[in-house]
Amino acid sequence: MMKLSCLLHKISKGLGAIEDVKNRDDVSKRHFTYYNFLFLLLFSTAAAFGQDVAVSGKVTDSKGSGLPGVAITIKGTTRGTNTDVDGNYQFAVPANSTLSFSSIGFEPKDVAIGNKSVVNVSLSEDVKALEEVVVVGYGTVRKKDATGAVSALGSKDFQKGIVTSPEQLMQGRVAGVQITQSSGEPGGGINVRIRGTSSVLGGNNPLFVIDGVPLSGDNTSSGGDNQGVGRQPAKNPLNFLNPDDIASIDILKDASATAIYGSRGANGVVLITTKKGKGKGSLDYGYSFGISNITKKYDLLNAKEYVAAGGQDQGSSTDWQKELFRTALTHQHNLSYGGGDNAGNYRFSLGYLNQDGIVQTSNVKRYSVGFSGAKKFINNKLSIGSNLNFANTQDTGVPISENIGFEGDLMGSILKANPTRAVYNADGGFNQVTTTEPNPMAFVKLSKDKANTLRALGNINAELEILKGLKFKTVLGFDKSMSTRKQAYSRDLLVTGITNIGRVYIRDVEANNQLWENYFTYDKEFGKVTLNALLGYSYQSFENSSKNVSAANFRTSDLDLMVNNLGIAGTVAIKDATALQSVGSVVQNSNYTKDELQSYFGRVNLGFANKYLFTGTLRIDGSSKFGGNNKYGYFPSGAFKWKIVEEEFVPKEVFTDLALRVGYGVTGNQNIPHNVYDRRDRYSDYVINQNGDGITGGGLNAVAFNNPNLKWESTAALNLGIDFSILKGRLSGSIDAYNKSTKDLLFKVVAAQPAPNPFVYKNLDTDIQNRGIELALNAVVIDGKKFSWEVLFNASYNKNLVKNLIGTYDTGEINGQGLSGAFAQRLAEGQPLFAYFLREFGGFDDNGNSIYPNGDFQQFLGGKSPLPKVNAGLTNNFKYGNFDLSIFFNGVFGNYLYSNTANAFFTQGSFANGRNVTKNVIGNGEGALNAPDVSTRFLEKGNFIRMQNFSLGYRIPLKSSKILSNARVFVSGQNLFTITKYSGQDPEVSTNKSLNDIPSFGIDYTAYPRSRTYTIGASFSF
Fold first, then answer.
1. 19-39: per-residue pLDDT in tens?
2. Which pTM was predicted?
3. What is the distance between the alpha carbons of residues 992 and 973, in angstroms, rounded to a whole number?
4. For 441, phi and psi rounded to 5 degrees?
5. Which residue from 530, 716, 807, 841 puts its CA 20 to 30 A from 385's CA?
């Protein structure tokens, strides 16, 4: 101020001197001098006040730890910077400015710098902002106010390393959730079970909801049933979503939480929320490189051992597993740019994944694009937002099937191929002997399997605040996919049904799902009473169409030419009922279905004195899948939570949280084939003879008939839970007990003949029970400034039982030589679902034949089941300085696995027929003529403990960087080791061995092997 006064005094004297120049008559000169002086005055004043000064400092939390990414702006302007990874900052600001410091989870702070050059700031935690929020249907709620059983996962909880689908992110992390990969193939299918298995025909996977759009659960790519190769599964439909775009996953487990989704909530609901932009705009880039190898090979006889055991010597030495399995590489890039504030946000992302499989030629590539944005208008009363995820997924498959016989698919051929047989002949061609003993390398090189899937999912939404507390939201959502799978098998491949003719299969699948939802929400406080209400309407349509093309009798072995020029085939079948193609074609029927779901839903949350919370929910669903007598279903639920910690009698020095939850509700399952309730017609195959001289077959035929009484499965569930936190929050967790009862079981039964179809869909008066207990613990063992250690543990127990089932139903098809019509599982009263139904094996007699002490017939085995009784996960998170380390184990206990692989290939009969076997077969006492009947000989415990993930990271200090705000490098390992007694390749397996559309579980048959992966990567924020 003193300097400013002196400056003004001098300016005043200068003006006076100018006014004293009166003896000049040249007024223009006087004005010129005056205005020039004013210009100099303004310039010097601006220079005096606009002089920037260098300011630096450190921003810390209440414990003194540096806070990265804190936004620092000059108050009243948009100029600013961010703190580096250690909380340091430095930038030039005008003298006497005021700086504003802000960070998510902390109270903002303004600091006047005065004439200081170093300004250190400590930010206080924002208690409200730090309270964990979980996503529930059509909204969010503070975790402490959640009345249902809800588990929330954030990015810090996710599985690390190479992850191709969202389900893998939560594997082993949530109590009561079992995730099983059906194979180790890149992009392969994954089974998700929440609180047990409760359905047969209706499917058991949960409902997935991405950014508010419920998915249909249908396959978005084609499977196949190819002659000479067998049935092959479709790829995982969730592979399109880039895991790097996911911000959180919330799992709704009990009926009080899932009832808001009514007819689709019986198996739980998984809510996936993608990332949104926040803070000052930043550019993020991440790269990772992975190396994968097979975890365990079968202990097969080598050439020397094979000959010594009496096997036929063909003069060579080949390790077929070594020939076909490889070291696989994975490259992954993720790039995003986004930012946001209270008025809006935006985020763009690009992703690229290129993952090789450990079996020769197998691969998956994914190109993904994501966008999310929101903006507020009209004094923040109107908010308009949008989310979009688009992906192009390219799969390269190999001929591994689910049900091929003893001749074997690729995996079967690898396991049984004679180790003294050469891969190639002297002329360089493949050494192929007979169609029953395919050359595994020829199987790979003389076949082609390419699938390309385009999928776009997203929504646009608008929310208007009509009155204070009253809002209306409308959502338009879409989920569209188009997929083509092309498979070709050369005529040079020596495999039954392919040799000398070659085959091509082209299958197109298209889905178009649309959503329109409208709902009101109302939030109001009346003294000590809080009210949150929801009332809405939803309409969703599901359209699916498919076309199949098959061709044979090719005159070329060029796989690309075969796929792209079907006209050179002698016979072509095109699955399209609308038109006949060129001469030499067989035209089959196409398929098109459309289902609609119309729903009304409402929910009321009431809170009293922040102690007693009530939730009531009702959803009414009307579905075109069901007949006129049961077009609508009603799904109510209710829940209560008592925050005991708020009572005066609770010692606050002991408990920071203590609450009791109880909930009951009814949910449904409608996941059955389309339009099964009424008469339906379709065109049968049209065949145009090769010479074009006539058409055979074809016509419109009934394939279904009226079924007006069909209705939803319904699951009634009771849940009791306790939430707690002690030792000042250092130990927290929850305990839940539940009882689920599923009735009106959807089932396909044989129809009385004559009838237009051999089967009919019915609701069985059956009760499938799942009862269990879940435990989740979070312990902060050490919470120091330099070093911290956090332990997360979860475990769940579930018991499954079938009650009131009339009759028995077989499933679990077993394939192999001499095993036609064989099965290993049966549904029956008093047994768990998919209970094993086997002969009791007691060794071999003196003649090498199997001994069955309880008789040579199949029987139940005291409830032995493929369904695990216990699932558990253990995570240890460490942090020291800039280093972070995470170690994760998961385990499965109490289940049994049936090795159809051993049953089909690892017997003395197989060895006697010139095939390779595992070493334990030789000298085990079995005779060469012993029948490989289905028995407990091939049943093994499936218990395992796996070191699923190890991740070590380091944040690079960036004190002087003006470009980077964050940099981290890491190394990780996945599936590092497994402790198990299972003799197969891996105990986490479940091949689809269904019979009559009744699924199976826990059967291992020539599954694509699992791999061990090591990853190195880095991420940067600019």
1. 443 344 443 444 444 344 434
2. 0.84
3. 29
4. -65, -40
5. 530
